[in-house]
Each structure stands twice: as structure tokens, then as C-alpha cells.
Amino acid sequence: MEVVLFEPEIPPNTGNIARLCAVTGTRLHLIEPLGFRLEDRYLKRAGLDYWPHVQLSVWPDMEHFCRDWHVTRPSARLVITSSKKGGTPAHRFAYRRDDILVFGKETAGLPEEVKALSPHHVRIPMLKEHGRCLNLSTSCGIVLYLALSSSGTLDGEEWS
Predict the structure, then answer these.
(1) pTM of structure
(2) CA-CA-CA-CA dihedral for 22, 25, 30, 35, to nearest 10
(3) Which residue ranges form the domains of the chain, and what is each CATH number?
């Protein structure tokens, strides 16, 4: 399982997601441009002392990431995520252990050209008329743990 953040803007969100990725052994990919520098104190603070355990890759754009993905992980699927627009409800999607979960930036989500990269789309169900979207780090936590659980990944002895 891997997580891709497309042009993340808010350092604490990315730091929280880095921490989530560290404790789940999930590779984290950041697609530039970033709305912060990797040295940002808020990013580091949110990630606490988990940074040495984060498998982090930074890509200049989605095209570079996709070129690498097609070569190094050709059987992996991109799973495009959304808080509420389109796609299979996240809890009903059939995840695989090698899925790559793609999340959009906080203010604009994912552009159409990124959504078009995959037929696999999931959304997080929300009550009607109770809000527009969830926080990026919350969304990532929900989808990642659903994916890890339903793919059987959490059943290993290494999990406490």
C-alpha cells in the first residue's frame, strides 16, 4: 500500500499523514509543488519523531511519479479518492495490498487529468447537507485503514 499526496498545501496535514504512514509501513509520495518546504517546523512538529520511519519520495510532478510507478510497480492500481464526489463508497471498495491511494490538495482536490489516470475511484460517505469535505489527514486515515483492513494486511503478526 502506498499514499500519494498531490500538491499538498498545509504542513500539519502532511506531517500527520507522514506519521500515519510511518506507523503503518506505508510509503508516502509527495507531488510538487508543495505549499511548504520540507524543513517547515509545522510539518516536522506534526510528524514528531516518526520522520526516520517514513518512506518518503518527492516527485516534481504527477507525470514523473506515474513513469516510475508503471516501471517499478506495474501491477499496482491507482485508487483515486474523494470526500464525497463520485466513486465507490470507500468501505465497499475491493482494495488490494499493492494499491496506491491518491489524495488531492486541501483547497481544490484532484484535477480532472489526475482523476482520469485510473478507473478506480473511491469516496468517503458523508451525511447529506452536513459539510463539504473532511480534513485531508482524516480522509487519508479513514481510507488507508479501510484499505489495510479489507486487503488483509492488518492480520499479520507484526501488527499490535
Answers:
(1) 0.93
(2) -20
(3) 2-155 (3.40.1280.10)
